[in-house]
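Action item from last week, closing it out:
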Amino acid sequence: MDLGDIRYRPETGCAAQADLRHDSLTATAPPAERWLLIESRSAWPRQALTSLRNSSSGAELGDVVARRCRELSIRPVLIRRYGRVDRTGPRRWGLVDCRPGRELVRWGDLPTDEHLLNVLAGKDLGLVSTAPVYLVCTHGRHDACCAVRGRPVAAALTAAYPERTWECSHIGGDRFAANIVVLPHGLFYGHVAPTRAVELAKQYDEGAVVPDLLRGSGAFVPPVQAAQHFARAAGHSPAVDNLLPQTVEVIGEHRWRILLASTNGTASGSSPARRLIAVEVSARLDTVDARLTCAGSSPAQIRHFELHNLTTA
């Protein structure tokens, strides 16, 4: 595990400093509607896809895969198992759709890195899996805090769910380490302690999120993530499929009105009552004298969302 600069100390790293500042997790999930998971058994470089190797001459495979993923709006990450790796079996690829109503995970074998181009072209559809996937960022060469805080979390999840859990390369939000992504719903969690990692998985199995650790779902833009957060804080259900956005309206500079569909409560019978929640939020950038990553510079800017109005029809 590469922890980067030898002067690094966990107690002064970007994640520890974010803890001390009480940085908000709200609406910090980066966009990620679809994912390409690439099993890798070599050391991860700082830029993950540069580890991909093509057997024929031509453009660097990592650049080709990255470009194709951008065209398809797919987030590529490297994955590996925690601990000792069995190198006798085939490597795997995964393709995940996180879009509401389309949530799906497909897995297939990865004989060569170049086979990823067949996967992205739809020539290998793999097999559908109903099991969730837990990604834990442990990319120490990108940020030491991710490895220091992520590996104990990966160990805890692996002990409980060995087939579902993978370490992964950089996913964003280093200061929120340990970071977990739960697929296929694309739920980003931050500041996860090993003692709470299994709780997240159990809640997901029961169809619910854990609001106090939730950064948001990458399937939604940040204003929607913020609206969902404020709706849950107001007492609406933490069910995974609740609070889906119906409309997103820009009503001013850095201000939005979002309609969410909620199924809180019941109607006159036993069926859930569907209600619309109108949430008005705004965003501002605050300058802080801090580094948001261990390799970053100071000062930096942090985006905060504010609730202006929340009404239920």
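Closing note: Residues 1-5, 265-270 have pLDDT under 50 and may be disordered.
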